[in-house]
Amino acid sequence: MTPAVPAWVLVALGGAVGACLRYVVDRAVQARHESPFPWGTLTVNAVGSLLLGAVTGAVTAGAAGPEAQALLGTGLCGALTTYSTFSYETLRLAERGRGRLALANAAVTPAVALGAVYAGLVLTRDLLG
Fold first, then answer.
1. Residue 67 has pLDDT above 80, yes or no
2. Residue 82's pLDDT band (boundaries 50, 70, 90)?
3. What percentage of the chain carries pLDDT values higher than 90?
4. Fewest C-beta atoms under 10 Å: which of 11, 82, 121, 123?
5. Closest by CA position to 48, among listed 111, 117, 129, 121
6. 13, burial (CB in 10 Å: exposed 0-12, middle 13-18, buried 19+)
7. Structure confidence at residue 13 as a pLDDT band (50, 70, 90)
8. Distances (CA, A) of 104 to 21, 40, 42, 46
9. CA 102 to CA 79: how far, in whole Å?
10. Residue pLDDT, tens place only, 86-129
């Protein structure tokens, strides 16, 4: 029998991967848009929220354990999603005279993230029974 990996190690490993993914995805998405709107941050927040909902759904359905929650939910999704960058980018839009884009970001990002986490949770629960 092998000893369990401590939860903090799983969180750290997931966080390392999530932070790198956030950077790569954000840059790749933002490079495709000539808009000052933070499409990259919106994308990582939506994807991370969807994945967090799916992981949580799997755990609550008994298809995954606390190790998956620590590695993927807390570590990967915690580092992939970014409330601080969302806040900063919204403030910067407002400071640069882009009030409408700032308001759009402030309204759209939480709505998309909440919808995505709910969708991930419901879909996973439905799939796993």
1. yes
2. very high
3. 95
4. 123
5. 117
6. middle
7. very high
8. 25, 15, 11, 15
9. 23
10. 999 999 999 999 999 999 999 999 999 999 999 999 999 999 97
Q: If you search the block for the tokens 């991930």, which residue do you land on?
A: 120
pTM for the whole structure: 0.93
CA angle 72/82/58 to nearest 5° reads: 25
39-60 helix and 83-95 helix, angle to the nearest 10 degrees: 160
* Helix 99-128, helix 39-60: angle, nearest 10: 20
SS (H, E, C) the chain: CCCCCCHHHHHHHHHHHHHHHHHHHHHHHHHCCCCCCCHHHHHHHHHHHHHHHHHHHHHHCCCCCHHHHHHHHHHHHHHHCCHHHHHHHHHHHHHCCCHHHHHHHHHHHHHHHHHHHHHHHHHHHHHHC
Cβ atoms of 59 and 76 within 8 Å: the answer is: no
